Amino acid sequence: MRAYERLLKYVVVRTPSDENSESVPSSSCQFDLAHLLVQELKNLGVSDARVDEQCYVYAHIPATPGYEDKIKLGFIAHMDTVSDFCDHDIVPVVTENYDGKDFVLGASGRTISTNAFKHLPDLKGRTLITSDGTTILGADDKAGIAEIITMIQCLKEENISHGPLSVAFTPDEEIGTGASHFNVEEFGADYGYTLDGDTEGEIQFENFNACKADFEIEGVNVHPGSSKDTLVNASLVAMEINSMLPSGDTPRDTEGYEGFYHLVNMSGEVGHAELHYIVRDHDAATFEVRQQTLRHIEKLINEKWGKGTVKLTITQQYRNMSEIIAECMHLIENAKKACENAGVTPLVEAIRGGTDGSQLSFKGLPCPNLGTGGHGYHGPYEHITAEGMDAAAKVALELVKIYADKVKA
């Protein structure tokens, strides 16, 4: 079975995580996929595969006899998807010999256009996989899961010698808690790789520092006919707060290592309003400046409109794993070599986001990220190719071969 065939089976199992939930996992539907994956691993001879009470799937593949002393290598992907565009059944669409041009997504009224997705002509001739345009596809990150399991199948079928291997599939990555309850000791690897990136060949070990910033605004609501010097419109104060942020520091206006403030949700009326941001920056010092800017805005607004008008809550999410990976750059050099062995061009670049690996790296498991072959994640324009998935699975397989010769220093 090719990786994309597994993907088609996984994406129809809806697994949106829920950022408003306090349970672990945040949505019980994630267990549906977890149990399916455990059975699939057992069918491949991975006898200890199991899902724990918090919906983490763990499995181990013992070393080939004589390779027990080699580096213990792990592979990780996440089972949940974003909740956006995931409110009804997902219908994957497979298009063979894609022509590299604008692609109409069924009757949804949406088109994956070459203007928005400049890489599309490079996919000409491949087998393109999308949704029908009314939902996400779910390749983020079920493609990573499919590629890891396909890699395991290849190990078995081709009788490839290897050191000790660990596999884990996590819940709730999309809401930033995928690594929160990860049992590093049970996973048992010296190093890991998440398969949770975009284009095949991506190698990422630098990610954003990240936090959430929530403003709660309390207004003074009185009759507008007699409100002179009394009424404080919370919604207008919210607009004022947003106007105090740098106008060019948004996701649309930034790239590469440039950080941003991203207004993800707002609500309000005269008496009460809320602004919810995510804040990102690769540089730790600049990241701290961004947070100080938000605190300064809170101070100024309260001075202007009265103490207690605005309350700012900043919640830390994850840190840039580069400071950890810098001590074990063999993970990056060997990933580049694995790409070359697989006939894939290595693309070492910073993540404009985060992965489970960023948190796991600070929990003692250095864990850079690899591409899965997908594009346009977190929306109805998500797409991937069968060939890109084949390449990503092969890169993982080549990494196993490389580390079969490595003993931990």
Structural class by sheet pairing and helices: alpha+beta
State the total count of DSSP E strands: 18
Principal-axis shape? globular
The helix-strand sequence is HHEEEEEEEHEHEEEHEEHEHHEHEEEH
Largest sheet: 8 strands, mixed
Q: If helices are DSSP runs of H or I spanning 4 or more residues, what is the number of helices? A: 10
Spatial arrangement of strands, main beta sheet: 1-2-8-3-9-16-10-15
- The separation of the N and C termini measures 37 Å
Low-confidence parts lasting 5 or more residues at pLDDT below 50?
Answer: none
The Rg value, from CA coordinates, equals: 23 Å
Compact description:
With 409 residues, this protein is α+β, with helices and mostly antiparallel strands. The protein has ten helices and 18 strands.
Summarize this structure as a short list of keywords or feature phrases:
10 helices; 409 residues; alpha+beta; four-stranded antiparallel β-sheet
Textual characterization of the structure:
Helix content is 29%, strand content 21%. It has helices spanning 3-11, 30-43, 139-158, 184-187, 234-243, 284-305, 322-325, 330-341, 356-362, 386-403; strands at residues 50-51, 57-61, 73-78, 93-95, 103-104, 111-112, 128-130, 165-170, 191-197, 202-204, 209-218, 260-268, 272-281, 310-318, 347-348, 369-371, 374-375, 383-385. A hairpin with a 5-residue loop joins strand 1 (50-51) and strand 2 (57-61). It is α+β, with helices and mostly antiparallel strands and 409 residues long.
